[in-house]
Description:
Largest sheet: 10 strands, antiparallel
Shape: globular
Order of helices and strands: EEEEEHEHEEEEHEEEHEHEEEEH
Number of helices: 6
CATH topology: Anthranilate synthase
Structural class: alpha+beta
Number of domains: 1
Helix content: 25-40%
Number of strands: 18
Amino acid sequence: MLYYRFPGEELQSLEGDFISIEDIENHEFIITDFKQEKKYFWSTTATPQHQEATIPYCIEEADYLLQATQVVKDLTRGLAQKIVLSRVKKATKALPDPKALFAQLLQQYPNALVYYFHDTQLGNWMGASPEILMERTPKHWRTMALAGTKVAGEERDFTAKEYNEHAMVTEFIEGQLKQIPGAAVQVSELSTYSPGPVTHLLQELSWQMPESVLPLLLKHLHPTPAVAGLPKKVAQQYLDIIEAHERRLYTGIIGRTTKSKEKLYVNLRCAELIDQDLYAYVGGGFTADSEPALEWEETENKSQTLLRLL
């Protein structure tokens, strides 16, 4: 069963299952893994394919701090400009009725793509993602450069590290879009965005394109430095080595790809539900100026999108 709601739209509920596909275009609801190697669309006529759930690896704080210290060392010696290290956090409280938790997400996050599904192949997942990867409007396309994190309502300025982290994301996206002929990229003023318990730095980028070339756009834009790092290929190869868990659907792509209504999100603030346990996937951006203890705290804050509702 699939339940989802795009911002400003009615809640949808569909029976069925996900089906593996090669091309994600022209589907009402799609989802991919982080690397875009596995792509799925929701089909109301799918044949169930039962698969046992695998418990994700949850790193302990002491081990995370050692891992994070190594990341900072590698960045300091010039391995990359930025690495986004993720982890999985298991909730300390038993999961109540998932539908009740989903109802709370709908109420708490009106400006996010909120979803919950039970699928015989992918398992049970829930999320409330605020980050638009790309959206097609009648006149242009748009995307978000979202990075830098502090607790919502925290009375402090963003740090130089956080501004730098955000600038990397904006410059990467703008540079990628400018490679597309005739895109005419426009960048909004810098602002802040608070989709829940945390606040981010935000700039929106818009561009023109005569028709949909979705595979080209996804190749250029995903993954951004906000979810992988910079340079993109170096960051992805590094994460393959250093992260002990599989990201699975976390930081993948989720949304719709129907013609004229394309709207895709980065699958953030999401969790896997196994039996009575909830496993939240979270991450934080590292630069050479990062402090491991603060990055751990940032992931703790991000996990509260879901965990504070339990």
